[in-house]
Amino acid sequence: MSSRAIVTAGLTRTFSGLRAVDQLDLNVPHGAIYGFLGPNGAGKTTSIRMLLGLLRPTAGTIELLGTTLHFGDPRPLRKVGALVESPSLYGHLTGRENLAVQALYLNVSRVAVDRSLELVDLSRDADRTVRTYSLGMRQRLGLAQALLGEPELLILDEPTNGLDPAGMNDMRSFLRALPGKSGVTVFLSSHLLSEVEYIASHIGILHNGRLLFQGTIDELHAVEGVHVTVEAQPMEVAERFLQEIGFPTARLGDGQLSVRVEHRDDAIRVNRSLIEAGLDVSHVSVSRRSLEEIFLSLTGSPDRVTEDR
């Protein structure tokens, strides 16, 4: 078995001469929860449609669970489950009956139905009609459908979209536990950066169809370094001095500067250097930027991430 659940090489999709996805090289380890992030129009949904064989790539290759995916050949997708947008459910049927219909299509047993219901914590509500389900319960039933065939890879497009805070928390807890419960690899797109930071082991950041970063959360923070907030007077002199000795700075407002350093201990050097230069230092603090702050820095976008089409 390949050590990677998803590998793409040079994956490209062009629409009317414009590249929606440009030379995408994904590398998703088995057992990972991989958060796929990008602003509006970045190419996330287009990428997912190509991964699921719903859209023919203009160029490049896709390998799922060690098998190359060719457009029109569904065989490599047999061990792949997916939930894209809202699940298709019959409101007049119970949750269990909805899964039973899907089980017939997939040629899997009723045991698989019970297993999927248990995985998503719907066993107690399985015999209620779906029209009485909350949105969160419907999303979990959609996940149960995706898990019916005991997939090794689960691909989700905005799985928490439209959920209230309680539903989002339930979904988040469920997804975090899923690889340990069933050994499945989870690949999910999301515009909710705080949610991804909480549950993901790996992330990919897409912008204008290109992958800006790929790796673990810790690797991303290592690339971004540590940020020191400094308040020193005169601010303009402090800013120029720090840049001259090799520390990138940015103004935060309220007379404060953000100084990027490699290690937390560098904050001591920043403080000492400013004092020795005769500047008045009234505040020094060390912080690690949030995923959202890093994302906005990488993409250069003032807007928050939103779902792409």
Features:
alpha/beta, Rossmann fold, Alpha-Beta Plaits, six-stranded mixed beta sheet, five-stranded antiparallel beta sheet, disordered C terminus
Low-confidence stretches: 302-309
CATH fold name of the largest domain, please? Answer: Rossmann fold
Mean pLDDT: 88
Q: What is the helix content?
A: 25-40%
Largest sheet geometry: 6 strands, mixed
By helix and strand content, what is the structural category?
A: alpha/beta
What's the arrangement of strands in the largest beta sheet? 7-8-9-4-10-11
- Classify the beta-strand content into a percent band: 25-35%
Work out the radius of gyration.
Answer: 23 Å
Summed up, the domain count is 2
Number of helices: 10
Question: What would CATH call the architecture of the largest domain?
Answer: 3-Layer(aba) Sandwich
Write the layout of secondary structure elements.
Blueprint: E1 4-15, E2 18-24, E3 27-29, E4 33-37, H1 44-51, E5 59-64, E6 67-68, E7 80-84, H2 95-106, H3 110-119, H4 135-147, E8 153-157, H5 165-182, E9 185-189, H6 193-199, E10 202-207, E11 210-216, H7 217-224, E12 226-233, H8 235-244, E13 249-253, E14 256-261, H9 266-276, E15 280-287, H10 291-299
Parallel strand pairs: 4-9, 4-10, 7-8, 8-9
Antiparallel strand pairs: 1-2, 1-3, 1-5, 5-6, 10-11, 12-14, 12-15, 13-14
